[in-house]
Specification:
Elements: H1 2-18, H2 21-32, E1 36-37, H3 38-45, H4 49-61, E2 67-69, E3 77-79
Length: 80
């Protein structure tokens, strides 16, 4: 368990140095509960929705996340 924690800590520190720490947090939130709306993710992380949207769009551009239209609300997206 300590080894796993140290791996996560090292990855987070490496991402922070590259300026990608917030992207890593967003990716972890999506992995924990896929197919959630961006608003739900922003509320969970305590971040402004526009900030989360930018981070998740960057993850989508890298091919790590797929955004789909929310069937209940065509104005919003779900991340997977």
């Amino acid at each position: 368990m300590v080894a796993a924690f140290m791996t996560v800590l090292q990855s987070t520190n490496r991402a922070r140095r590259k300026g990608a720490a917030s992207r890593l947090v967003a990716l972890a939130a999506i992995a924990a509960a896929p197919d959630r709306g961006l608003k739900a993710i922003s509320e969970e992380l305590g971040l402004h929705p526009s900030s989360v949207t930018r981070q998740i769009q960057a993850l989508e551009a890298d091919g790590l996340v797929k955004l789909t239209a929310d069937p209940e609300d065509g104005r919003s997206c779900r991340a997977r």
